[in-house]
Amino acid sequence: MSAAADGDENVRTEMRAFIEDNFLYLDPEADLADDQDLLAAGIVDSLGFVEIVEEVEARYSVGVQDVEITEENFGSVDAIARYVERKRAGS
Amino acid sequence: MSAPGGPLHGFDAAATIDRLASETVEAVRGLGRRGAVVATSGGIDSSAAAGICVRALGADKVQLLRLPERDVGDSSSDLALELAESLGADSVEEPITAALEGLGCYAQRDEAIRAVFPDYEPSWKHKLVRSAPSASITVFSLVVERPDGSREQRRMPADAYLTLLAATNMKQRVRKLREYTWADRLSYAVIGTPNLLEYDQGFFVKGGDGLADIKPIAGLYKGQVYAVARELGLPDTIVSRAPTTETFSLPQTQEEFYFGHSYERMDALMWGHLHDVDPADLVAEVGLSVEEIEAAYAEIERRRTATAYLHAPAVLFAREA
Lengths: 91, 321
Known about the structure:
The structure holds two protein chains of two kinds. Chain A is built from four helices and no strands. By secondary structure, chain A is an all-alpha fold. Chain B contains 14 helices and seven strands. In chain B, the strands form two sheets. Chain B has a four-stranded parallel beta sheet, with helices on both faces. In chain B, β1, α2 (44-57) and β2 (62-66) form a beta-alpha-beta unit. Chains A and B meet through α2 of A and α6 of B.
């Protein structure tokens, strides 16, 4: 496994835990898939996405522009991991 | 118009007023009350509701209230006084600024704003605005206007957003406290003034403007409320006034704070959604693409889900055997 993939997996693990702790704590049996659509599934609402953005900014030291707060970048655990990876790569 | 109808298609304002007045009489009687208390902001919704109550119950059985506070200024209270004079109903002004100060409303609001603009001073004007309509994530930003007139907009962190909303929601809740105080004193019912868009989409404060005994215009689209107000002969200064939220110190429309569309367009979108109108048949009416209308329909659904809690009554557990 490459270093980039390791980092990617760490982000997945950390953000999955963040989402489970903050949005699914009353539903501990829920099995959150990494490709689960967080908005469509009703797990995270718009304000919740702002909380996720703040967590990403604080945890990974990346600046998130308003126009980047989209489902493409934050709509699932996978999307968040890909987004963080792109930001770290400077793109 | 390409859509097969619309909120104002065939709308008979006079007949609607007769129906709403009759139902208001039945509702007040059914609740065992003797009249109605209406808090009037000078806006179209509370004015139309007040006009319906006066038509239903008579001016001497309607107590109007004007409940201004610091951020909104005196102009809305002046309009509401003009309304009262035109309706011939008694109107009492009870400013709520001192109560809000005592409750910490302004201090908590300022704390929330300083989380976004650390150099904010209470003399600066401000408002909350949302991102452009989409079927996806909505982001709220704070706009401040400095004394030199320059404006700046920054995204609201979640904590600051919730703190700001909790603080400003006190305004609606203190107003409701005043309304029920008068209702107790007079044995009147409290009239709520949400229109169909606000009620359906949860644009109200639970325990604040969402709390009432009767909501006579909750089935009327905003355009229908205007038609009813004109039919009632309400003052032109009120009927021709652009709607605002009456919450923040900078003028703020419901479009930029909540709906993302003008009320005319939101009426048409809501009507289309409620009547299962194909988005393609609504394009010419609302001036949006099929994709944008689909997004608006999705947002209507999403807001309903997100605000279900505001409509929910208290959860009652089963009685012990």
